[in-house]
Amino acid sequence: MTKKKHICFIVPDYPTHSDPVYTFVKQVVDAIAKMGYSCSVVAPQSLTKNVFKKKPVRPLFWQDCIEAGIRVDVYQPRVLSFSNISLFGRNISASLVQKAVIRCFKQIKPRPDLLYAHFWHSGVTAGLISQKYQLPFFVATGESKIWVESLFPRQTIDKALAEISGVICASTKNRNESLELKLSNPDKMVVIPNAIDPKKFYKMERMLIRRKLGFKADDFIVVFMGSFDQRKGIMRLSEAMKQVNPAKVIYIGSGELIPTGDEILFIGRLPHDQIVNYLNAADVFVLPTLAEGCSNAILEAMACGLPIISSDQGFNDDILTPEDSIRIDCMDVNAIAKAINKLKNDAQLRSKMSESALTHSQLFHINNRASRIMNFIENVIDEKKEV
């Protein structure tokens, strides 16, 4: 039996129980580790954020226990960050992060067999490491907007990505945007949408959950999950809710834009393991977002059996169908309100869309995604060996 490879993931951040950032990155790492691959993660931590946001400083090295007998080595070099300050076309913070990751990679023993970079800016760093150590490297792109050109000069990007082994795109939108930016070739790309862990997001009995959370049994409840900003559309939803009466709303997340109103049942951040309860307490999930790579929040809501109201833009094409969603112009508050009222006033339609969402969500199982990713990676590596 062939020994499983050692994979080094280069990522912007990594979650802990008390700081659940980039949970979708850990989700992929966990699933691949459970397949028998040895996994190391390099996730730089910003000392600037630690000071100004009062985030605790993490160890330079720690192990993430996935389950009995399976551990992921996590390396977190400390770096200073300086917002968007650039010098000679190069973002200073991005350069410092890149140097820290390259130095950190030298410490990983035994040396990994391949590199898996999350987002294109991490891919530039992976490309430089790849050239030095002659390792295959892959990039996973799922950005709402690819911003690598704002961090590095084009010449640096082209040089680093010249020998890229493959690209895993979270959506057709990400694939097309990557091609437009000439970051890779179409024959090196595969579209594999994001996924959910069905052990963490699943259908529950709505009335039991409402009783547990103290919500009324007969309320019509809308739920939103995402950052509280212009892109995700929290204030557009808040305005639309004034046209839906009577109705209640749950806002899960945090940010600068804070809606107010008597219709709000809950607003704020939640521990990741409690989100499933609040999703299951709702009747419909609404995310009037302007841009996504592939929305994890939508997939998680679908796995809880919620009909979806979201954008009619292409980034939703790979995960939503007319049977489980109403697609709207997310800048049109009246359209958002109309879609909510349509589902509010038609219990039969809600039930039908709920069943479709549950069925459709089964296509996005994290184990299936991990298998597809590793099959793609292994096939690319095998093909190169044969050349």
Q: Can you walk through the features of this model?
A:
The protein is α/β, with parallel strands linked by helices and 387 residues long. The chain folds into two domains: 6-195 and 366-386, Glycogen Phosphorylase B (Rossmann fold); 206-364, Glycogen Phosphorylase B (Rossmann fold, 3-Layer(aba) Sandwich), CATH 3.40.50.2000. The chain contains 13 helices and 18 strands. It has helices at 23-34, 47-52, 92-105, 120-133, 154-161, 172-180, 206-213, 234-241, 275-280, 296-303, 333-344, 347-361, 366-386; strands spanning 6-10, 38-42, 45-46, 61-67, 70-75, 78-79, 86-87, 90-91, 114-118, 137-141, 166-169, 189-191, 221-225, 248-252, 264-268, 284-287, 308-311, 325-328. An eight-stranded mixed sheet has the order 4-5-2-1-9-10-11-12, sandwiched between helices. It has a six-stranded parallel sheet with strand order 15-14-13-16-17-18, with helices on both faces. A two-stranded parallel ribbon has the order 3-6. Helix 1 packs across helix 13 (366-386). The radius of gyration is 22 Å and the shape is globular. It starts with 5 loop residues before the first strand and ends with a helix. The model has no long low-confidence stretch (mean pLDDT 94).
